[in-house]
Design brief:
Elements lengths: L2 H11 L4 E5 L9 E3 H17 L7 E5 L4 H12 L3 E4 L6 H10 L4 E5 L3 H4 L2 H4 L5 E5 L2 H8 L16 E7 L7 E6 H14 L7 E4 L6 H14 L2 E4 L5 H10 L4 E4 L1 H11 L11 E4 L6 H11 L4 E6 L3 E5 L13 E2 L3 E6 L13 E7 L10 H7 L6 E9 L5 E6 L4 E3 L2 E3 L1 H9 L4 E11 L3 E10 L7 H11 L8 E4 L13 H8 L3
Parallel strand pairs: 1-10, 3-4, 3-5, 5-6, 9-10, 9-11, 11-12, 12-13, 23-24
Antiparallel strand pairs: 1-2, 7-8, 13-14, 14-15, 16-17, 17-18, 18-19, 20-21, 22-23
This protein binds malonyl-coenzyme A (MLC).
Malonyl-coenzyme A (MLC) binds next to helix 9, helix 11 and strand 13.
């Protein structure tokens, strides 16, 4: 049994209940899809994909806006034992190309607006058979309704990969974390229990659906519970607050940047969120001041949890019990977490800061076609090295204390400095660069590029930002550029980023 069995059961059990409602950008009501309609449309989409030749193990990339076609394709791909590869619609051609090539994608669904740019790709890429432009929900549905609903049995192999999420690392190039049916099922079950999901829940969904947070935790979480997801195409604080109230929502999940904007928007007027029962925060550390301000403003205590693309959710503050400020809480059912010495990897006593390692049925089996990266990421006895530092309190709560990996988190998105540094290295005026995160009240961290120019006075910040904009998705583009003559380096010549942050960030 996988989460897909549960979803199909829910579609029968709650056939007439709204599973998804796509709100308009201003929060007004939009298209509703019942559980019964969802199942019918998924089966028709499966038949449509089968006709396109999709088979077990194929990679199907979805670079589509947050809407019904994305969700139908994603579910149908997984039902066919193929692999869903969601992609940020903001990826410029260069980044997109990398993902399609690396994952050896066979079929690519693209937003029609990008279709002209991507149309020639099948001629240039060996594996890619077809690019299918999707114009609108109506045009997509008009196409799939003509198919006879597929009768394919549900996937049975828990170890097969059904979802691939790209994440980066210290070497700069992103790699695909292979999540299996079993991984997702274990994590959905754990969260269902830990957060007390109810079929009566109504979640206001404001996150992008190309990441684990918006896609698995929020969207699948709701469908797994037989609940209703009300999806906004993008986050806008006033709209979200109004929609939560008007729609009498009970659940909301977001990142600290979003929670801060909600607090700021609510301070301007009266908001009653007494109908909410669960508001969670993740993807980045929740600052203590925001935890308190949120409580004061809304009378709700944010439930902070910790996860990553490779694992889904790992550790969470409890639904009932102490939600401890500054802490990410207790390991979820079925998840083991430990703190080890970063050098020797020997377990450390409670209260000592070390490297966080995790193990459990939710943890991915490794990276797509990167056995050496998989071997680096896991210990011999199967613990995943998260790259985060933290400590365990004597009562079992975990607190994160920074990172050993070179990573910047901006507005809940991970930015891997080596990826940005590779782009900067291509600029003819850049001799060397180091990308760091500087603390920022709005974004958590601000991507900052520190550059040694080829010749002093020849470069300006605007030019560098424009260069990056053409080559990187928006959140990776440096928000600040600083020119220096040299970097602090250690004896091996490696840039000391901690020292560089001290020198540059407070300026
Ligand atoms: C948008 N911009 C960002 C940005 N998001 N810049 C830096 N960091 C970000 N996160 C850019 C925009 O392109 C724009 O650039 C400018 O910042 C201001 O835009 P905005 O309108 O204020 O931003 P907005 O579109 O409202 O987006 C902010 C946001 C969004 C917080 C709603 O970033 C967001 O949805 N974040 C959630 C990310 C997420 O879901 N992460 C989950 C990863 S899974 P310009 O130059 O065009 O003006 C994971 C595992 C786990 O980490 O545990 O959850």
């Amino acid at each position: 049994m996988t989460f897909l069995d549960r979803l199909v059961d829910n579609c029968e059990r709650y056939a007439d209940k709204v599973a998804l409602e796509f709100l308009e950008a201003d929060g007004s009501s939009g298209r509703g899809v019942t559980y019964g309609q969802l199942e019918e449309a998924v089966r028709k989409t499966m038949a449509y994909l089968q006709e396109k030749g999709v088979k077990k193990g194929d990679r199907v990339a979805l670079q589509l806006p947050k809407g019904l076609p994305f969700i139908l394709l994603h579910l149908a791909v997984m039902r066919l034992e193929a692999i869903s590869l969601p992609l940020n619609p903001g990826y410029p051609p260069r980044e997109l190309r990398y993902f399609l090539e690396d994952a050896a994608v066979e079929l690519f669904f693209a937003d029609a607006a990008a279709a002209v740019t991507v149309a020639p790709l099948p001629d240039e890429m060996e594996s890619l058979e077809e690019v299918v432009p999707v114009k609108s929900t109506d045009s997509f549905l008009a196409q799939v309704v003509t198919y006879e609903a597929a009768r394919q049995p549900l996937p049975r192999d828990p170890d097969a990969t059904c979802l691939m999420i790209y994440t980066s690392g210290t070497t700069g190039r992103p790699k695909g974390a292979q999540l299996s049916y079993g991984n997702l099922t274990a994590n959905l079950d754990a969260l269902h229990e830990a957060w007390g999901w109810l079929a009566e829940d109504r979640i206001l969904h404001v996150l992008p659906i190309f990441h684990v947070h918006g896609l698995i935790v929020a969207l699948h979480g709701a469908l797994n519970a037989g609940a209703t997801a009300l999806l906004l195409p993008a986050f806008e604080a006033e709209v979200a607050l109004e929609a939560m109230e008007k729609e009498q929502c009970t659940v909301f999940m977001a990142v600290p940047t979003i929670h801060r904007r909600l607090v700021e928007a609510a301070n301007a007027g009266e908001v009653d969120l007494s109908h909410m029962r669960l508001l969670t925060s993740g993807s980045d550390r929740l600052p203590d001041d925001l935890f308190a301000q949120f409580q004061e403003t809304f009378g709700h205590t944010l439930l902070e949890r910790y996860g990553m693309s490779e694992t889904g959710m790992l550790i969470s503050n409890p639904l009932n019990g102490e939600r401890r400020v500054g802490s990410v809480g207790l390991p979820l059912p079925g998840v083991e977490a430990r703190i080890v010495d970063p050098e020797t990897e020997a377990p450390l006593p409670d209260g000592e800061v070390g490297a966080v390692q995790v193990r459990g049925a939710n943890v991915c089996k490794g990276y797509w076609r990167r056995p050496e990266k998989t071997a680096e990421a896991f210990t011999e006895d199967g613990w995943l090295r998260t790259g985060d530092l933290g400590l365990r309190e004597p009562d079992g709560y975990f607190t994160l204390k920074g990172r050993s990996k070179d990573l910047v988190i901006s507005g809940g998105y991970n930015v891997y400095p080596p990826e940005v540094e590779l782009v900067l290295a291509e600029h003819p005026g850049v001799d060397a660069s180091a990308v760091i995160g500087c603390p920022d009240p709005e974004w958590g961290e601000r991507v900052t590029a520190v550059i040694i120019p080829e010749a002093a006075g020849t470069l300006n910040a605007e030019e560098i930002i424009a260069f990056c904009r053409e080559r990187l998705v928006n959140y990776k583009v440096p928000r600040r550029v600083v020119f220096v003559d040299s970097f602090p380096r250690n004896a091996l010549g490696k840039v000391q980023k901690a020292r560089l942050r001290e020198q540059v960030c407070d300026e």
